[in-house]
Task: structure prediction
Amino acid sequence: MQALPDTLSIAQEIQLSVAPVFMLTAIAALLTLLFNRMSQTHDQIRALGELPEGEGPGPRPEKSASAALAARITRIQWAIRCNVTAAILICAVVVSIFISDYLVPDLSNLIAALFIGAMALLAAGFILLLRDVSKS
Result:
């Protein structure tokens, strides 16, 4: 059985895990933005449904406005899914960094794959946000 790593080794592992933890903070901020956009879109859908016929500043909105808002919610939900999954993968990266010294000496391929997957999902979430912003 392998001896427990010394304090210096643990300090190095903590240093390695700082960057992914900052990424978690950025993902949390992005999720806040996405949830706010989804909440505003839900409010817009409710407002469309509550306008009585003949009232309001102009003609009654068509079903296409409601369909566009529903498509927007779908894009935002997919962006949220991508970002939450990216956050989970980042957590797995941090856990793998610490486990690599205790159980398996070389998890570098797994850590790289998890990080690449997290970055791809984060990029997909940003692309979905960009599409949402460009269509609204």
Remarks:
- The longest helix spans residues 7-50.
- The CA atoms of residues 78 and 125 lie 7 Å apart.
- The chain has a mean pLDDT of 84.
